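Reminder: ligand-aware prediction takes two inputs, not one.
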Amino acid sequence: MELLTATNASRLGIGLLAYLVLQTLYRLYWHPLRRYHFQLVKMHKQYGPIVRVSPNEVHIIDPTFYEEIYSGSTRRRNKTPQYGPQFGMPDSLHFFSKRSIQSLSPITERCVLKLMQRLQEFYEADQVVRLDDAFAAMTSDVITYYSYGESQGFLEDATFRSEIRTLVNELAATSHLNRFIPVMSMLLRRIPPRWLAALQPSRAATYDYLASIYALSAQSAVPDAAAAETHRKHMKHATIFAQLSDPSIPASERTRARFQDEAVQFLLAGTETTSSILTYAAYILGRRKEYVERLRAELRTVLPTPTSTASWTELEKLPFLTAIITESLRLAPPIIRLPRVAPTETLVYNGYKLPPGTVLGASAWFIHRDPTLFPDGDTFDPERWLQGEKSEHRKRYMVAFSKGSRGCVGINLAYNELYLALAYLVRRFEFELFDTTPEDMEMVAETVLQVTRRGFPTVYARITGLVGE
Ligand code: HEM
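Here is what comes back for the chain with protoporphyrin IX containing FE:
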């Protein structure tokens, strides 16, 4: 047999390289799974509740199987490396318990009141406001306060400056790449932001912001127990990072890399999610004046004047407000794809054996539209949540925050923000949508988050009046 010559070997090498580049480009830009969600819709229509989306991944839309995939701490479930750090929150982190968030609620309320003041300024100046930017500024100020002990002034900015939104967008946009090249996610997390800024000067401001967040988080990553204790005592209040640097957490989990990952995770998970639900709810209320009237009448029972304040506990008891929030979470769950792996367990669905290590998924978008639970599932209908036992049964299948050991740690904070912001907005202001149509709100693609034709769900509005008593 003829030996491989040096020339042939280099041709082969070049050919192989070209093949890999072309394959990567194809997968990134033309492969049908780029619009993964829409492909899933088609596949489930054709093949039923379980479909195989890649050699090692299945997607199951049967609501009764959801808790098998996203199960609690006794049955171990891992995230896949493409979707963020592998470790969960330390058990000792009580920061996000309901009681803790209730006691810290004045921080959220301060940011919500600042938002109201800004909306009043838009009203007085007769200016159109981009509500999604305003809500994202609020959630950004809340999460930076909870993380580091001070808000970073996003709400103060004339146009609600948006380093976090841009960063979230950048990171979410790499999610597609990460699916095909899992190591990419880890590499991107380790590249110093100043290198990224040098590579992409037009995005320097975003990477500078990332560097500043890394620096803030690193201040908390003090592996020495005594130093960590001193540091913790000097934090202004029990911030997330002060708790993560608690000496009771093993030093191996208090590394700089861990803190950087958490910093990004909290910014990603804690801002665009809550603000997109507020944006969606405001969009619905902008179109349905009858809902606004009914909600305002209910709000008057705990907010007697437009500038009254109420506690989260009081607001949570209001059925119609709760119905509007729950229905928004049902129809517009912000996070689309959340695979899990059962590392040691074989799961069985409808006779199909799913061996340990299989990547399993069940997107909230499908569960929330299951026709047996939510008839006419594409329609916004708050009445679904006002039907006693029937509604209680449906609530068990609400999975916008996912479930199990790796479900949302920030669920209480999210509800705290949703209740306060929506209640104060509706009690104080009349508003109308501006240049925002149903087509603008439709999902056209997905990264990890929903993407519309205008990028993030975008809602413009005019504050047309202050509500009388
Ligand atoms: C309406 C608002 C929110 C929704 C719908 C939501 C939804 C979710 C979902 C579905 C997950 C699981 C992601 C996965 O499986 O990969 C998750 C995880 C997470 N969320 Fe939220 N979230 C919201 C608000 C927040 C807030 C305000 C915070 C702030 C602290 C937060 C912090 C987190 C964190 C840190 C994780 C990762 C947990 C882990 O990996 O163990 N989320 N969220």
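The CA atoms of residues 304 and 320 lie 17 Å apart. Residues 79, 83, 88-89, 143, 265-266, 269-270, 273-274, 277, 333-335, 338, 400-402, 406-410, 413-414 surround protoporphyrin IX containing FE (CB under 6 Å). We will return to this case in the review session.
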